[in-house]
Design a protein that fits this description.
Number of helices: 4
Number of strands: 0
Distance between the termini: 133 Å
Helix content: over 70%
């Protein structure tokens, strides 16, 4: 039996000297490291995508709230029965068009509202001129 143990020891020494046993752990370390790096990169990409999606949803919510407020301001601006409310509405519309949330379509809508208010003001002044 002593000879069997000695033969096994000689074989292990030969394998170590050839690099067979030493190469297996190194390969495993390299593979584990690459797996870790890929997992970290994947985690970062998922985080980045979720952050972008969240930012987009928040911007959309802000634009929807801007539009809701714009509609209210437009209703005030076009109020023919109460001049004070109409003036407040015009001031609100003018202030809202300076927002970065207002896109080209919203700015066009604001122009239409302000043009309509100006047209209403011109109609009122023409009516007052016709009356003696």
């Amino acid at each position: 039996m002593a000879t069997d143990t000695g033969a096994v020891a000689v074989r292990i020494d030969e394998q170590v000297s050839c690099g067979r046993l030493g190469a297996v752990p190194v390969a495993q370390i390299i593979l584990s490291s690459l797996t870790l790096i890929v997992a970290l990169i994947t985690g970062f990409l998922v985080w980045k995508a979720n952050t972008g999606a969240t930012d987009q949803r928040e911007l959309q919510a802000k634009r929807e709230e801007w539009w809701r407020r714009f509609q209210y301001a437009a209703e005030l601006a076009l109020d023919e029965n109460n001049e004070r409310r109409a003036n407040i509405g015009v001031l609100m519309v003018r202030k809202m068009v300076t927002s970065t949330l207002a896109g080209p379509d919203e700015l066009a809508a604001a122009d239409v509202i302000l043009d309509e208010v100006l047209a209403l003001g011109d109609t009122d002044s023409e009516d007052s001129e016709d009356q003696p």
